[in-house]
Write a structure and sequence with these properties.
mainly alpha; single chain
Length: 232
């Protein structure tokens, strides 16, 4: 596994992502947007506003997934002193904070039209807001650690707190009384969503994942160039 963090592996991988995946996104994103806006039928109860799910759900999944990546990379960076793992953790934290913010904003907008309020101190919303602040704390501590103002061990502490928050977010709608609906993707057997609405959602999640991988690989290449320039 450690070999995956060798420059001989991750640098060509990042270049291939930029070469093949990036042009695919330029074509796929407009196609997906037209699909969602023009081909997906309105929801019987919510009308057209339900289409915000194609932003809200991919961003929420990305926010949770990226923090798991942040935690794993932080541990690898601290234990094995892998520089690229530290870079991945740093970039993933910034992208994850952005995804969490979009999740909260899109959820607030959606909630206003479905619940009649921009914000309620619901268990799901509150735990998601906590994750956003944990991301911000990680970013601030990471910046301080790069300037040798604080130990990188503090990043592990923040990572553990974030990892604890993730199951709270996921199971909050089950453990506590919540206005937020349960998972759509994990309840396919109950036919909670027709396939003509579900396929674009799956495509949106895949597109979001590819976009994040593309951005992180671009940021890693920039860091490699900066590191080589400073070394020379």
């Amino acid at each position: 596994m450690i070999m995956l963090f060798s420059p001989n592996f991750y640098i060509p991988f990042c270049h291939n992502v930029q070469k093949y995946i990036r042009p695919l996104l330029y074509i796929s994103i407009p196609v997906l947007t037209i699909w969602v806006l023009m081909a997906v039928p309105n929801d019987q109860a919510q009308g057209g506003i339900f289409r915000i799910i194609y932003i809200h759900v991919p961003m929420a999944i990305a926010a949770l997934s990226l923090f798991i990546i942040v935690a794993i990379m932080s541990a690898l960076s601290w234990v094995f002193h892998i520089k690229v793992a530290n870079w991945i953790a740093s970039v993933s934290a910034k992208v994850g904070a952005f995804c969490t913010l979009i999740t909260l904003l899109s959820g607030a907008y959606w909630g206003y039209y479905t619940w009649g309020d921009w914000w309620v101190w619901d268990a799901r919303l509150t735990s998601m807001l906590m994750l956003f602040f944990i991301y911000l704390a990680y970013i601030i501590i990471d910046q301080a650690a790069e300037r040798y103002l604080i130990s990188k061990q503090a990043l592990l502490v923040v990572s553990v707190i974030g990892v604890i928050d993730i199951p709270l977010i996921h199971y909050s709608v089950i453990w506590w009384q919540s206005l937020h609906q349960t998972s759509t993707l994990l309840n396919l057997s109950n036919h909670t969503m027709p396939w003509e609405m579900l396929w674009p959602l799956i495509a949106s999640i895949a597109m979001c994942a590819l976009a994040i991988v593309t951005f992180i690989s671009y940021a890693i290449l920039k860091r490699v160039n900066r590191y080589e320039s400073s070394a020379s």
